Amino acid sequence: MKRKRFLICLAAVLLLAGCGASSSADAGANHAPASSAPSGDWSGGMSMGGDHWNMGMGEMDTAPGEPMPEPNLPGSEGQTGSVYQNTRAKLIRRAELSIQTEQFDQSAEALSRLVADCGGYFEMANLYGGSRRDAYANRSGEYVVRVPAEKYDQFLSSAGELGYVTNKNESSEDVGEQYYDTEARLKTQRTKQERLLALLEKAETMEDIIVLENALSDVEYQIEMYSSDLNRYDSLISFATFRVYLNEVGRVTQEVGETASLGQRMVAGFQASFRNLGQGFQDFLVWISYHLFFTIMLAAAVVAAVLVGKRELKKYHRRKENSD
Q: Which one has a higher pLDDT value, 163 or 256?
């Protein structure tokens, strides 16, 4: 009989915790704490073998097996809408910037100062080009920057001073529903943990202790999982994420849009043609410098071919004169 009452007590704890978890998923952040026990045989607390265990759970108006009543949400009396309408939004803000600069070192230093002024940090920083093998190649940098959410607008507006912004993408995600739901589930699991610990203190047989410890192990795993999710959400919400692409160019490209006049577009086209011609000639000279030996051999072969051709042409004219 004593063993049967203990199992009934344990089943009631797990049932209450399960009902609390289901109601928290429906109620979101503001769920009522599951601090009540079923009425009837459980009036005022739990008992086993004549010993009265006062768990401080109070009384319930519902009998075992009946669904748990919906919790009273603060400020939700008489409302039938979403329970999240009165809660503060949980926004995760992100932005992506592509920036061209003619002075890469100065722009990279300015980016570091901007991050420090905003109280942020670099989550990732990659630099491409500028090594011994490609010392004179255009450099580029890829950075993932985290700044406090309240400094989002300051960083975004100041990033235009790093160079010419060629692309900008912004996005925000409201995770308030997931956040408050996870928070409510965490509270339910902690309440369940407290009840199981109280039962463990009163357990008398080794079998009961093992059952309770296994249940506590499952609850602790759920608590760690929900706590990790909340910490991840807090990190993403409190710090905005910027992905910055910094590209070194010889000349910042400012294309003329379709809304420009015909004259402006033609002038821009002529300028681009002359720039491309000059750049192509420079690239040709650079190619010759990298292939100097091949260029000399090619030039020598061309000169030899011309000399041999002239000699053969003279011989041909002589034979023709003699035959005439």
A: 163
